[in-house]
Structure formats: C-alpha cells, structure tokens
Amino acid sequence: MPNTSFSLRGDHITLDALLKAQGLADSGGHAKQLIAAGAVRVNGEVETRRGRKMRAGDRVTLGDDEVVLVAGAA
C-alpha cells in the first residue's frame, strides 16, 4: 500500500479537502461521493462525514492509498 505523508499548515484539515489536496478526488463533489459511499477509512474505521477534522497522526485510506497526516513546521 503506497504510504504518503501530508504536512498540515494549521491544526487540522477537513477530510474532503484532504482528498482533493492529495489528488485522491478530482473535485469536492467527487470527494463527497467517495466519502458517502463508505470508500474512505480514517484510522481503520469507515468515515462518512466529509467535514471530519483531520489532525496530525490520523491515517486516511482510500483503496490502495494511505495518507498519514503530520504536523507542519511551526
């Protein structure tokens, strides 16, 4: 499973924005569809809330892709 990291600029990012920023969704609508379909996991659990706040240490999985959030430089 490809594992990439995402460096946060603040203390959080919403799940749908993360999917777009990482190129896992083509648009906000596409991100919403993926999340609503139950295709996205956060820390191993299916997540259906597109506005879920993702913080450093969280892991997001979509298919074979996994993104690990890390704290940005202060």
What does this 3D model show about the protein?
The model has no long low-confidence stretch (mean pLDDT 94). The protein is globular, with a radius of gyration of 11 Å. It starts with a strand and ends with a strand. Helix 1 (15-21) crosses helix 2. It has a 5-stranded mixed beta sheet, with no helix packed on it. The chain is 22% helix and 32% strand. The longest helix has 9 residues, at 28-36. The protein has helices at residues 15-21, 28-36; strands at 3-7, 13-14, 40-42, 45-46, 53-54, 59-62, 65-70. The protein is built from 2 helices and 7 strands, in the order ββααβββββ. It has 74 residues and is of the alpha+beta class.
Strand content: 25-35%
Spans of at least 5 consecutive residues whose pLDDT stays below 50 are none
Strand order of the largest sheet: 1-7-6-3-4
> Helix amount, in percent?
10-25%
Q: How far do the termini sit from each other? A: 30 Å
